[in-house]
Design a protein that fits this description.
There is one protein chain. With about 425 residues, the chain is α+β, with helices and mostly antiparallel strands. It has 2 domains: about 240 residues, BirA Bifunctional Protein, domain 2 (2-Layer Sandwich), CATH 3.30.930; about 90 residues, 3-Layer(aba) Sandwich (Rossmann fold). Helix content is about 40%, strand content about 20%. An 8-stranded mixed sheet has the order 1-5-6-11-10-9-7-8. Helix 1 runs antiparallel to helix 5, helix 2 crosses helix 4 and helix 5 runs parallel beside helix 10. Bound molecules: adenosine monophosphate. The site of adenosine monophosphate has 16 residues, from strand 6, strand 10, strand 11 and helix 12. The site of adenosine monophosphate (AMP) has 16 residues, from strand 6, strand 10, strand 11 and helix 12.
């Protein structure tokens, strides 16, 4: 029979990689909980209209990238392309806004976008999302950005990830900037890529975000939003920067860093690495003060970010080691198997990772296997030893062997494990 392969752009996270993923998740939980964030777990699919409204009908995500299907009741549903809309839906639906604010939440899981797959870009990918709802103060923006960098520091990636930050203004100052930018882009229309030409009318800010080489000269010369901020937005941005300085977070002010959606305001940021080619953004976020209201809730401001786990995993590659069994039990014969099976169970019960050979081959072959598994100790039990109520304990690092009484195996091995940790 022909083997069936995984869907294009969708990948398995294999056992050799899972220690990296577990380290990322553990790092996120540890750091975010220190800052008062609690986990929320959200469904993987929602009504399509949630994303249409929450992300925007005219965005690439909603126009081209969603996995949308009609279920048996005729309702249009979509696999989530991002988590913010779902999280805000849950915030409104369960009246989480009645809790003391800001409400601080994080969630970890897969997202789905029909994009062109390449290294660091997949159709099912994973994000760690963090959102804080109910505060508009700039010092909070600085804190959440500092927390993002603390996450990278926790994973020892602090030096390899740079923070870019910008303000995109608000409803007071952005419309004038947008008109200004549009006029400039129109003058330079022929130097833009096809996609950007289409964006000039509908969403000129998105042009600033374009990564295509042909657009870069135009983008570099474009007017800077930072020169067009209204006084309150200016003050907000200054305070964010002041607090980032206070926290000793290094950042690069990047005026072209935008989020194309109307409800995004003021602070936007991105964590970027120089090591992953075109897919260089490992996390992105910003303030979205209009979203909760847009999704039927109170006028609560929000700020958050999403970390791309595949990309962080690429940076961490090879840096985590798997944990293997601490002891490998080799019974030679049926009566010995019975005793070893019991011993393995007892060892595990006291917290020692034990692996048992259920169908032992020659001792040499089993020792080779133990070597491959990088197990520090092997316990060998043959008929003669069993008769003496003893077993042979072999230290795989030194090759030393000694006899120990069967009754003392659990205590002995547990003690050895204690010495190692
Ligand atoms: P976004 O929600 O588009 O702002 O994405 C936030 C982060 O998720 C990005 O900085 C990437 O690290 C990651 N990301 C976005 N899309 C993909 C994808 N298709 N494959 C892998 N990672 C992605």
């Amino acid at each position: 029979m022909k083997a069936i392969q995984a869907v294009r752009g969708v990948r398995d996270i294999l056992p050799a990689e899972t220690p990296t993923w577990q380290a990322m998740e553990a790092g996120a939980r540890k750091v975010f909980e220190l800052y008062g964030y609690r986990e929320i777990r959200l469904p993987l699919f929602e009504r399509t209209e949630l994303f249409a409204r929450g992300i925007g009908e005219t965005t690439d995500i909603v126009e081209k990238e969603m996995y949308t299907f009609v279920d048996h009741s005729g309702e249009s549903l979509s696999l989530r392309p991002e988590a913010t809309a779902s999280l805000v839906r849950a915030y409104v639906e369960h009246r989480l806004h009645a809790h003391p604010k800001p409400v601080r939440l994080y969630t970890i899981g897969p997202m789905f976008r029909y994009e062109r797959p390449q290294a660091g870009r997949y159709r099912q990918f994973h994000q760690i999302n963090v959102e804080a709802l109910g505060t508009a103060t700039p010092t909070f923006d600085a804190e959440i950005v500092q927390m993002l960098m603390a996450f990278f520091a926790e994973l020892k990636l602090g030096e390899r990830v740079k923070l870019h930050i910008n303000s995109i203004g608000d409803a007071t100052c952005r419309p004038a900037f947008r008109a200004w930018l549009r006029a400039y882009l129109k003058e330079n229309l022929t130097r833009l890529c096809e996609e950007c030409r289409a964006r000039v009318e509908r969403n000129p800010l998105r042009v600033l975000d374009c990564k295509k080489p042909e657009c870069q000269p135009v983008i570099e010369q474009a007017p800077s939003i930072l020169d067009h901020l209204c006084p309150p937005c200016h003050e907000h941005f200054d305070r964010v920067c002041h607090y980032l300085n206070l926290f000793k977070v290094q950042y690069i002010v990047t005026p072209r860093l935008v989020r194309g959606l109307d409800y995004y305001v003021r602070t936007t940021f991105e964590a970027v690495t120089g090591e992953l080619g075109a897919q260089n953004a490992v996390a992105g976020g910003g303030r979205y003060d209009g979203l909760v209201e847009l999704l039927g809730g109170p006028a609560d401001p929000g700020i958050g970010f999403a970390i791309g786990m595949e990309r962080v995993a690429l940076l961490l590659k090879g840096e985590q080691t798997s944990t293997f069994a601490f002891v490998f039990l080799i019974p030679l014969g049926e009566p010995a198997l019975e005793r070893c099976a019991e011993l393995a169970k007892d060892l595990r019960a006291v917290g020692v990772a034990a692996e048992l050979t259920h169908a032992p081959r020659k001792l040499r072959a089993e020792l080779d296997l133990a070597n491959q598994l990088r197990v520090p100790y092997v316990l060998i039990l043959g008929d003669d030893e069993l008769a003496r109520e003893e077993a042979t304990l072999r230290d795989m690092t030194t090759g030393d062997q000694r006899a120990i009484p069967l009754a003392g195996v659990v205590t002995e091995i547990r003690g050895l494990q204690g010495q190692q940790t």
